[in-house]
Inverse folding.
């Protein structure tokens, strides 16, 4: 019986000694958890930004594509007259005047009036940044807006096609 009491007291002493480490272990676990959670929150924040970018890019691409499709039924001269025209890119919210960006149609003659090179390009606002070179979203890239110095309106949203002149 005395051996059982001695064994119980040894177990109690071990438990009492383990309690001193419990606080340190809990603090270490909380530190690891906080570090992990901050990484997860960073991923969630970036996912939100990328989701908005994807949505706005899709709207801009679809708007540019619809402008290209509108040109299918136009004559060669009517398409040439569209050079330099701009159009608004709606936000998709359905609210009139709620636009996220602007697009521009550029038409150039290729091979002595046999072909037209039609380029539809767009810049748009994504949260606090502008995607494309048109920083003030006015449809014209001038001066400091032309970041690569090539003298033309550049953007990741760009559609190009060639239109033959059947009237020649």
């Amino acid at each position: 019986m005395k051996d059982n009491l001695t064994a119980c007291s040894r177990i109690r002493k071990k438990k009492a000694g383990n309690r001193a480490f419990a606080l340190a272990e809990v603090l270490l676990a909380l530190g690891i958890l906080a570090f992990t959670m901050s990484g997860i929150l960073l991923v969630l924040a970036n996912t939100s930004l990328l989701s908005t970018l994807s949505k706005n890019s899709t709207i801009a691409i679809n708007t540019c594509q619809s402008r290209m499709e509108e040109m299918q039924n136009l004559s060669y001269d009517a398409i040439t007259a569209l050079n330099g025209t701009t159009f608004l890119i709606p936000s998709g919210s359905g609210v009139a005047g709620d636009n996220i960006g602007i697009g521009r149609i550029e038409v150039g003659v290729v091979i002595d009036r046999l072909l037209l090179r039609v380029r539809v390009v767009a810049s748009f606002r994504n949260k606090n940044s502008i995607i494309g070179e048109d920083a003030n979203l006015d449809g014209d890239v001038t001066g400091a807006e032309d970041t690569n110095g090539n003298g033309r309106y550049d953007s990741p949203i760009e559609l190009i096609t060639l239109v033959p002149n059947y009237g020649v």
Summary: Residues 49 and 127 are 8 Å apart (CA to CA).
